[in-house]
Amino acid sequence: MIRMLNWLVAGGIATISCMLIAQVFFRYVLNSSLSWTEEVGTFLLIWVGVLGVASGLRSEDFIAFTLFRRSRIAAVRLLCTIISWPSTIAFSGLIAFYGWNLSFDRAYGPVSAAASIPLAWIYAIFPIGGVLIAALSIARFVRELSGKAQQTSGVDSGKDI
């Protein structure tokens, strides 16, 4: 699943790059600007950002307070785990809940101005991303509590961010 997320993020970034190159070409070479590229690029950037967070959770590729995460005192490491992962799970649950409400409130409503994309499709990333982030966070939390994450975590293995 993480490999698929990585490919989706990479594909989204490549698509955004191609659209921006096309926009510059059309605007400055052909003197005819494309009206939809900026808007679609912004929407893709939202999707890429949320999916990138979900992808990064698996390998824990985020800024961390390594002073506490690498502490030699087991109680400090456990406290970090007990505070950080449930907080992440709760926050992603809020994102999923309010994203669900937002996307379905607009399910048959407005469309984007330039690309005529229903805004519900754009907002759909929030419940999708919230559920993905919560599921991956729960899995990571369970692994850390069971002690299995120490061998695979970038933070605990000496990899500096």
Automatic annotation (TrEMBL):
The gene is siaT_18. Residues 17-145 form the Tripartite ATP-independent periplasmic transporters DctQ component domain. It is found in: Cell inner membrane. The complex comprises the extracytoplasmic solute receptor protein and the two transmembrane proteins. Belongs to the TRAP transporter small permease family. It holds the Pfam family DctQ. Part of the tripartite ATP-independent periplasmic (TRAP) transport system. The chain crosses the membrane at residues 7-28, 40-57, 78-100, 120-142. This is TRAP transporter small permease protein. It comes from Oceanibacterium hippocampi. It is a multi-pass membrane protein. Keywords: Cell inner membrane, Cell membrane, Membrane, Transmembrane, Transmembrane helix, Transport. GO terms for biological process: C4-dicarboxylate transport. It comes from the Bacteria. One of its GO terms (molecular function) is transmembrane transporter activity. InterPro entries: DctQ, TRAP_DctQ. One of its GO terms (cellular component) is plasma membrane.
